[in-house]
Structures are given as structure tokens and as C-alpha cells.
Amino acid sequence: MSRGHTPTIAVVNQKGGVGKTFIADELAFWCERHGVAYAFIDLDGQGSGLHGTSDEGGDDAAEVAIVDTPGAITDQLRVALTEADAVVVPVRPSVDDVGPTERTLGIVEEVAPDVVGVLAVNGRTRFLETREFEPDVERWAARGWNVFRLPQSVLVPRARRRGESVVAFAPRSKAAEAVEELCGAVVGEVTGHGADEA
Ligand SMILES: Nc1ncnc2c1ncn2[C@@H]1O[C@H](COP(=O)(O)OP(=O)(O)O)[C@@H](O)[C@H]1O
Ligand SMILES: [Mg+2]
User: Fold this and answer.
1) Does the residue 91 lie in any domain?
2) pLDDT tens by residue, 16-39
3) Predicted TM-score of the model (pTM)
4) Which helix (H) or strand (E) holds 65?
5) Ligand 1: residues whose CB is within 6 Å?
């Protein structure tokens, strides 16, 4: 039986260590909390994620597919991008990340011009480095990227060590609030679930 096109969210950035796997896992946890059937596709295969690629049987019922990707834009990844309905680009607010992020956004804009683009500024919020990064964020927002912000928090690695969402681990934290908002908006946008809150 053909399932047609499952709404697909790809989490992408050429840069490693920006939070791709963290956010892909949190998208899956959001679906678990909100009763949305999902398929998880790990194109990275480093095994650092809390979710692995779903069985094929699971795909049939999936209302959304979540794709975690490696820190390199391969041909396989370009194909995955053309099939995506939303692309989340996590970025660390550091001037070192501007170049790789600019290239990543350019590739997404080229191969998937109609995609819902989300820029997840992931990390520190109070430091000089962050303020120097702000003009780039504004430039990307003006190009149509929807900007969300996640705080740097020790709760993230602590939750991950326990194999949990930061929302389950520390429900009242700022990190949990930001994760819930980002994931709800992105899954809601592609599936219609939780659109009230999004
Ligand atoms: N907002 C955050 N606060 C604290 N640690 C974070 C945050 N986001 C990611 N991390 C940590 O940063 C590291 C890299 O994240 P990861 O998701 O593996 O990046 P990527 O998949 O882009 O290489 C992990 O140890 C993760 O737990
Ligand atoms: Mg990763």
C-alpha cells in the first residue's frame, strides 16, 4: 500500500556540534508526548542520537518523518532536502558558524525553495559573541527564515544522558519551554497538529 508523501522535517547544518541530533530527538519526543505517529530517519549513523531509524513497518502509519543528517551536504542529503516540507537549521551563535550556516541556508534555498525554513539559534544568549552574531540572524530572518531561540543549558546533556527529552527531565525550565515551542511550531506547521499553540 502506498502511503503517499509523509510530511517531512529535515534537521540540517554542515557544521557539526550545533544541535542537529538534539533537535531531531526533541522533535520525536514532542510527537511521543502529543500522540503524533512519526518515522525517524538517521542519515548520520554515528549513533549519537536517542532515536534510531524506524522499522519500515512503522513508516506506513507515520504522520510525520523526522530526518537527522550528518555534518556534510552529500548528494543523498540534497535528495532528502528536495522531499522536505520543513528544514530546521540549528546554529550556534558564534561568528565561526556564520560561514557554514550561510552555505547551508544557500543550499536549502536552492534545492527546496518552497520549504518552511526554521533557524534554531541554539546556545548562549547573554554574551558578546551572541550580540555580534545578531546582524546575521536578522539578515537570514529577512530572507524568510523563521527564527527560534534555545538557551544553552546543562539540563540538555543531563537529560540526554538519561535518554530523556529535556521537557520530561526539567519541565519548568527555560530550555524545556523553548524546545516545546520550537517543536510544536514545526510539527504543527507540517501536520496541522497543535496548530492552535503554534
Ligand atoms: N542548548 C544546548 N545546551 C547545552 N548543550 C547542548 C545544547 N544543544 C546541544 N547541546 C550539546 O551539544 C553537543 C552537540 O549536539 P549534537 O546535537 O550532537 O550536534 P550535531 O548533531 O549538530 O553534531 C551534544 O553534547 C549536545 O548534548
Ligand atoms: Mg548529529
Assistant:
1) yes
2) 999 999 999 999 999 999 999 999
3) 0.94
4) strand 64-68
5) 16-22, 48, 71, 122-123, 150, 152-153, 156-157, 160
